[in-house]
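Good morning C.,

I know you're traveling, so I'll keep this short. The sequence:
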Amino acid sequence: MAAITGVVITLNEADNIEACLASLKRVCDELIVVDSGSRDDTVARAEAFGASVIHQPYLGDGPQKNVGPRAASHRWVLSLDADERLTDDAVAAIQALDLDAESNGEGNHDAYALRRRNFIGSRWIRHCGWYPDYCIRLFDRDRTGFSESRQHASVQATHPRRLDADLEHYSFANLGELFGKASGRFSNRAAKIMYLKGKRANAFSPFLHGANAFVRKYVFQRGFLGGLDGVSVALSAAINAYLKYAKLLEFQRDAKVRDAEDFDRIW
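The C-alpha cells, ready to paste straight into the viewer:
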C-alpha cells in the first residue's frame, strides 16, 4: 500500500482529536493537524499522538483544508474532519487500493469517496438525505484538492471512485446541539455570506425557504421513515432556512442590527 498522509483541521477539538488520529493512523504513516487557534488542549493532545501541528488562523473551509496537503510528505492524502472515524470496512478498502499504480498513471482515479454515516448522539440517521452521503476523503494532492470555497468545500476530483465502505460522522452530540447550531451559528453565517454577496430577501423568503426545506427533508428525502429523529432533522433544516433568510432581511432593513454585526468575522 502506498504511503498516505492523514490531515485534520481543528478548533477546540480536544474531545475528538485523539479518536480521529487513531482512526487515521490505521492507514496513514504521517499525521498533520492544522489548528486555527484552539483554546483547549487540542494541540497538546495532537502532538502527544505524534501529529505535526500547523498553526493557521482560519481561512474558510476549502483554503484551510488545503493547508495540510501542501505540507504533506506523500502524494496521497486522507482528509477527515475531527468528528469523523474510519470503519473497519473503510480501512480494509483503503488498504486494498493500489495507489502506487494510480500515481504512476496506471490507474484512472485521482480520488476515492466513502459513504458517510451521520449520527445524532449514537443514532445513525439513515434518511433525510443523510445517507448515503458520499464524500471524497482520499485524494492525490498532485492532481486535485479542495475547492477554494470558504463554506462546505469539497475535493474537485476529475475521476473519483466510490468505495463500498463507510466512515462515521458524529455530527451532533444531541438534539439540542442539532437545533442550536441550525438556529445560531449556521444560519447567522449563511445570512452574512448572502448579504455580502448582494443577495436580497423579501417578506415571503423566510417562510418559503423554510417550508421548502422541511418538505424536501421530510417528504422527498423520506424523513418520515426516521421517526422522531427524521422529524427533528427536517425541522432543524426548516429553522435554519427560515432564519438565514429572516436574518438577511433584517440586515437589509435594520441599520442598527446591521451596524452591530462584524461582517469581517464570518469564519
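Safe travels,
E.
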